Amino acid sequence: MASNVSELTTYNAFLAGEWKKSSSGETIAIKSPYLRETIGYVQAVTQDEVDQAIQAAHEAQKSWALLSLSERGAYLERWADELEKNDKEIATAIMQEVGKGYNDARKEVVRTADLIRYTVQEALHLHGESLRGDGFPGGSQKKLGIVERVPLGVVLAIAPFNYPVNLSASKIAPALMAGNGVIFKPATQGSISGIKMVEALSRTGLPKGIISLTTGRGSVIGDYLVEHKGINMISFTGGSSTGRHLSQQSAMIPLVLELGGKDPAIVCEDADLDVAVKSIMNGAFSYSGQRCTAIKRVLVNEKVADELVSRLKAEVEKLTVGSPEDDSTIVPLIDDKAADFVQGLIDDALDKNATLVTGNKREDNLLYPTLLDNVTEEMKVAWIEPFGPVLPVIHVQSDDEAIALANKSEFGLQASVFTQDIDRALDVARQVEAGTVQINGRTERGPDHFPFLGVKASGMGVQGIHNSLISMSRQKVTVMNLK
Ligand SMILES: NC(=O)c1ccc[n+]([C@@H]2O[C@H](COP(=O)([O-])OP(=O)(O)OC[C@H]3O[C@@H](n4cnc5c(N)ncnc54)[C@H](O)[C@@H]3O)[C@@H](O)[C@H]2O)c1
To answer: How is the chain split among helix, strand and coil, in percent rounded to 5?
Structure first.
């Protein structure tokens, strides 16, 4: 594993087909969450450069959209090959920049190559339709409507830090396959990984300008990009408050938002506890809980609560804590502010008499996995997304109480229900307000060809490969009026 941060690189931005320094003359330092030192610098792109990138994307998009689907697909296939060829280098960048375990980072790169290839195939297999005019009263057989999908123009792809390659490519690949130009804004912490991913794309010889990568301060270019008249669609993944802000700033363009969550694991008294414990552990603690679909609260039937908690405790205490270079499950959080935030939620719960089962230990931004029992509705941790390794357990008397608590949350990303009675599982699943309900499994985004969506404060619109292609294109109807 390469881990060389001794030579600090200043990375260029990819603007209108060229890797270059910003005219701002300013850079942003990227600090590794676990090395706790600067590992590189990225460009602070200016508003003028954003204008130029958007204009170049519009120009390039016209001829890009005229390429055949297979020609566009061939570039993307090469991109997937390039990612695989450079998986170790990119995985190292992800590990150092966002503190993800090396093996998981490598899996993220491989998963991304698979996602790109599937996106190509899905785009090749999308079909339009034709409509007969006489299908409506008074209509004529001589009227024939042809419905095709056409690009939207230039798509703005904004990604979060936690899957800096996969969540970016899951926007860029469908946008390009649908015939759009792309402006990609990575999370600041995630920029180096995003740059490495776009370097791989640029090596495919993609037409100049069709994609630009704008690194920069949210305060300087964030709102500017979102409000820009040259942007025709925004695909955003990130926190709910940023998403809400975006939806207020953007005007009259399609918006897909994948936001935060507070996914509950509902454990009924007839659950197979082996399955429940394994799924909850994996769902709640991998990558220190920094996953949108992490299990963020357990709603367990009183009858099995003590047994579940003692089994969870035993597993939590076995978790590996330390460095992503050793593939520890529990790693330092993205920054000190994030750790302070999670600590605040733990402190609030303990002040209000939650039971500390295990954890609540901290070294800088490394928080040990923390299990809290007897959490009540008065505690912040019952409702707020921690994005860290703390799991609150709330006792309930019935399925109805669990469903009511699940639905009282402002979020509605996913939920899990554990029971051995399929009718009961489906009954709970039907009533829980969430984009996806997992029966006897952990909450998770994949497989990437499934629709992925959040309801309420968890999002708007649908991702997943097929749905992303649909949301990044629109219908165009041509009507033939025959003699
Ligand atoms: N539902 C999902 O698919 C999903 C997946 C992963 C993460 N998330 C959520 O993301 C959050 C963690 O990620 P984060 O901390 O990177 O989120 P964040 O909201 O802080 O940032 C997300 C992105 O938005 C950018 N941004 C910030 N202000 C902006 C502005 N004014 N205009 C334009 N862009 C702006 C950031 O630079 C970053 O690229 C969590 O809440 C998590 O649940 C959701």
So the answer is: 40, 25, 35
**Same structural domain for residues 448 and 463?**
no
Residue 370 CB contacts under 8 Å (≥ 6 apart), including other chains: 346, 356, 358, 359, 360, 389, 390, 391
258 flagged as catalytic? yes
Any idea what the CATH number is for the domain that residue 161 is in?
A: 3.40.605.10
| DSSP reduced 3-state for 126 | coil
From the CB of 223, is ligand 1 less than 6 Å away? Answer: yes
Mean pLDDT for the chain overall: 97
Q: In this predicted model, what pLDDT tens digit does every residue of 27-62 receive, in sequence order?
A: 999 999 999 999 999 999 999 999 999 999 999 999
Q: What is the CA radius of gyration of the chain?
A: 24
Q: Ligand 1 pocket test: which of 246, 292, 334 has the largest number of ligand atoms within 8 Å of its C-beta?
A: 292
Nearest protein Cα to ligand 1, atom 2? 258
Q: How far is the CA of 84 from the centre of ligand 1 (A)?
A: 26
The verdict on 186 and 66 lying in the same domain is: yes
Pocket test for ligand 1, best of 97, 100, 155, 158 (most atoms within 8 A of CB): 158
Cα–Cα distance measured from residue 257 to residue 144, given in angstroms and rounded to the nearest whole number: 36
Distance from C-alpha of 408 to C-alpha of 288, rounded to nearest angstrom: 25
Cα–Cα dist 403/453, whole Å: 19
**Is the pTM for the entire model greater than 0.90?**
yes
Contact between residue 125 and residue 460 where contact means Cβ atoms under 8 Å apart: no
Q: Which of 258, 269, 315, 401 is catalytic?
A: 258
Structure token digits, residue 17: 């087909």
Cα 187 to ligand 1 centre (Å): 7
Q: What domain range is 317 assigned to?
A: 263-455
Answer yes or no: is the C-beta of 254 below 6 A from any ligand 1 atom. no
Cβ of 179 below 6 Å from ligand 1: no
Token readout for 245 is 């802000």
Q: What is the pLDDT of residues 426-475, one digit of tens each?
A: 999 999 999 999 999 999 998 999 999 999 999 999 999 999 999 999 99
Structure tokens at 142: 């001589």
Asked if 154 contacts 179 with a C-beta cutoff of 8 angstroms, the reply is no
Residue 2 in domain: no
Which atom of ligand 1 lies at the shortest distance from residue 160's CA? 16
